[in-house]
Amino acid sequence: MTKLVDTILDFAIIVGVSLILFYGLTFLGAPLWLSLICVAIWGGFTGYKPKIVRKPFKFLYKDDQEK
Predict the structure, then answer these.
(1) Digit-coded pLDDT (tens) for 29-67
(2) Can you give the pLDDT at residue 3?
(3) Of 21, 29, 33, 58, most Cβ neighbours within 10 A?
(4) Are 64 and 54 in contact, with CB atoms under 8 Å apart?
(5) How crowded is residue 46: how many other Cβ atoms within 10 Å of its Cβ?
(6) Is the CA virtual torsion 29, 31, 36, 42 positive or negative?
(7) The dihedral of CA 46, 49, 53, 55: what is its sign?
(8) Contact 1, 22 (CB under 8 A)
(9) Which of the 8 DSSP states describes residue 67?
(10) What is the average pLDDT across 3-17?
């Protein structure tokens, strides 16, 4: 069950940061193509190695704190 929760948490963090990145760049006046490329790079990189996302958000993962 913990693995499922970790996967859902990874997905939520990746999507949340993607939305913040997209709206932040759009708000700052970046062209749409640049915003979409940045979101695609972020999604591709974190989708390939989701453990990278866990480092700054390790307080959300119970197993990592106990070790």
Answers:
(1) 999 999 999 999 988 888 777 777 777 877 777 765 554
(2) 80
(3) 21
(4) yes
(5) 19
(6) negative
(7) negative
(8) no
(9) -
(10) 86
Residues 6+ apart with CB under 8 A from 52: 45, 46
* Cβ-proximal residues to 65 (8 Å cutoff; 6+ apart), any chain: 58, 59
Cβ 22 vs Cβ 35: under 8 Å: yes
Global pTM value: 0.75
Output phi, psi for 49, to 5 deg. -130, 80
Nearest CA-CA partner of 17 in 39, 37, 41, 47: 39
Query: Which of 6, 2, 35, 1 has the alpha carbon at shortest distance from 19?
Result: 35
